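This is your field. Pick holes in the following sequence-structure pair:
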Amino acid sequence: MSPVPPRTRRRGIPSTPVRAARRLGEIRRAQLITTYGVGAMIAVENESFLVRGIDSWDISEAPFISEPRLARQLGVSGFRLPPAPTPNLAQDGVRAVRFPDMYSCPECKQLQLFRKFNSPAGKAECASCQENLVPSRFVMACARGHLEDFPYWKWVHRGNRKESGTCGGRLTFRADGSTASLRAVLIGCSCGVKEVSMEGAFRRQALRDLGIRCAGRRPWLKDAPAEDCPEQPRTLQRGSSSVWFPVMHSALSIPPWSEGIAKLVAPYYDVFKEEDAASISAYVRMQKLLRHHPEYTADDVVAEVERRRAAETPPVEAAGDAEAVMQARRYRQEIYEGEYQSLSTTHPEVAGQEQEFVCEPPVTPVGALRESQGLAQVMLVKRLREVRALQSFRRVEEPSPADTPLRETAISLTKPNWLPAFEVSGEGVFVRLDEKRLRSWEQEPGQIERANRIRENHQKLLSARIGSSGKPVPLSPATPRFLLLHALAHILINEWSLDGGYPAAALRERIYGDGDMAGVLIYTATSDSAGSLGGIVAQGEPDRLEASLRAALHRASWCSNDPLCIESEASGADSLNLAACHACLLLPETSCENNNILLDRATLIGTTDGRAPAFFAH
């Protein structure tokens, strides 16, 4: 008799925590922030896992990322790149936990906790049938981020008033394949109750009618106690985008933080910030930190540390909830204003220096563009660095400026002094509109009326999200100026995706439309050097820019859904757009920083009746 062959571990995340993190390392680091961050579910073959909180991550080898302005806004000391596993040493960095706990067998139809299937080590298969198990398709979540398995027992026994588990039967799960709807997904029990379908499980009141309340569970946080939660849970599909919405913040690295001594000190600031001048100088000499930079001295390092200390402020949670939110918004406004000033100023490339921000005007003057198109300034951003950080996440409802602190789902059991982030490099073009012409245009009654229509709908939505929390309702940014800049960014991205060598999903926008700002940055930013190949910068040369803008406006002048699109009284999610649809203005989600809302094509080309004139009338 031949010996039994050894078991081979399947490709995927095994059940043990250490090895689960090793397999999770196959995901790109950026995805641990944008797609599969803390609290998100990851499907690996026939298993499903939940990424654990950052307090369980091993960050001893995780690179430090410096962006002081963004750290100040988020109330942390700095950022870390998600740790990568070390397969040769069997060391992990990011942990995962199995979720959901309920699995079903497609052969015997049993539906029960994963551990009751007695699966062989490293596999998810039924011990009786040797069939691969299937994780539960349905979960239960609330707007505060709590997450649980779907209550199948209560669902199939509704109408039979028994305590959970007292029937003594076993649950079954089967799909008869008669239709693609939930009516074909049947839940049964061996106690003899009639099989019921999952139809109606997604109704807003479905779980409330069963007497089910949120238990306040946070399975992504190890040993986290249950919280009291008044929110009503909702049924969600395990793979639905509503299960996890990341709350991300970003900032561009601009001078003086991105160059010179500030850049050298940034990786060591956590070591220096609690030390005196003598200790800092001794450390610099002992570690020979300036051996490749003879133009600086230890005294320069001390001075830079003192400057950063003076710029730091207490974390935003030091004040009340309302004050903390307003303070964070002020910091965010400061970030955009600082970027706007840097983008409007020449920062030439200096030979022999490692620069993260290079911004220069084109060689050809842009005077003709001011007269013909109303562009006051064009800057070629030949090099930029952006830091994107994950602060928290949401479930059920997408993030909103009106979210209360109670809906800020924690990514750590305790208040962290760092956040996971990644940095990307790229290039871009900054366009600033002529202020005089813009002020004259935004006083037009027709454009004011259209912007007010969008702003009223947006304010109603923000007020509804605030509810009775007492938090001040944030003001909607929907002004004629913002709508114009936003629409301009979208048509240029669509046009440059045809001419610049990048797909539209690889381009991003940054709108500077508050106060006296009137600019748009369109850029590409990736985690490698592919984001700075020059394809977008070349589009900023005045002759190409004028041709691109004329072509983009020509495309925007007629939509395949016209006249319905241009004459629309409201469109988009929650009626937050006017003349904007997938055939003319909408972009991939990765490109728009406003989730494809607050758009109106009429700002560019005007309305057919002439009541709302176009900015680009010439």
Remarks:
- The chain is about 25% helix and 20% strand.
- Residues 497 and 504 are 5 Å apart (CA to CA).
